[in-house]
Amino acid sequence: MMDTHFHLIWQVMGDHKREDVQRDFLKFTSQQILKLLRNQKSPLLARLRVDAYDRKYQVWERNSLAIELRTEKFFKQKMDYTHYNPVEANLCKFPEEYLYSSARFMKRMKKTGPS
Predict the structure, then answer these.
(1) What is the domain range of residue 99?
(2) 105 pairs with which residues across the strands?
(3) Residue 6's pLDDT band (boundaries 50, 70, 90)?
(4) How many Å apart are CA 94 and CA 104, to the nearest integer?
(5) Residue 1 and residue 52 in one domain
(6) Does residue 7 share a domain with residue 56?
């Protein structure tokens, strides 16, 4: 089921640390998601409410999984998994049909080549 999560492959550039990049990504995106839900007065906001000692809402799972992709083979395996996850969730028939997937972009690049 893909309505509760997503898969992301990203690369840390320069001298940044993975932990810092991940922390900042999660913080920024959670703030933006909460802002959007508040502005739209969305009922989804109530589903994120946790009233924990250090936060009112929880957007992301704590300690979300991050795996270093050290080899080309492992990278390809995870990319395929990411692309076929919406197919397995019956959100589309082919990976490139899923609106939020890089599979569409990659298929287009194979046809046209880089610009």
Answers:
(1) 67-115
(2) none
(3) confident
(4) 10
(5) yes
(6) yes
